[in-house]
Amino acid sequence: MGKQEDRAFAEHYGPVALVTGASSGIGDAFARLLAARGLDLLLVARRRDRLEALAGALHEQYGVRVEVCEADLADPAAVDRIVEAARGLDIGLLVSNAGFGLKGAHQDTAPARMADMLQVNCAAPAQLCQRLIPALVARGRGGIVFTSSVEGLMGMPFSAAYSASKGFVNNLGEALWGELAPQGIDVLTLCPSSTDTEAHALQGIDSSTLEGMMSPEAVAGEALDHLADGPVWIAGEHNRQMFDAMLSMPRRDALFSMADAMRAALKP
To answer: Of 3, 13, 162, 267, which residue is the catalytic one?
Structure first.
């Protein structure tokens, strides 16, 4: 983007963007790209040390104001903490990015971890945007980005609860796009596929088996470039073509194909 486009972006979505899950991966990339476009930031994550290091670097490089809020979205009280941190800030863009996944046979999933995942991936985004939407509507401009996944486009074998949680996010984003677009609020549900983050190792996935790996910067950049093109954006031309083909297949065939791919990725 050029300086004129950056100014137009900041005028529509600024002056402040709130980014959850900002301490690593796609959230870190969102924070850096938004700072480069001139937006002040409220960054949310569990790891305060990382947030403070990122805040300092962005302020030094871009001169933007960056505040941090340490919060674990698995805690139902975290949304109240974030809303309190946002009090008095003119937030024009919510990037609801925090999330995590669990891979493997559904019956092997630890119940407590699954409950935490559903809180982080589903309840927190729904509750946080519900609290922030009135101010966006009053402004008459702004945006919401939900980081979902291509796994939200269909049920994924060996990723059952995670894909179901991202299906929730996709439906939430689509519904809010229909509600808010006439009021000047852009809503985009971002569906990345394989992204070069720490998540694969944490989920026990061999990243060498994954095709079309994208950088977090490329994924976040596509979301910001296509924020007005909601309700859903699949990151990466390769991924758009692959899932267009996958979703056009008989669903049984698509599920068998994905099950085979996940078995290979999860093989010890």
So the answer is: 162
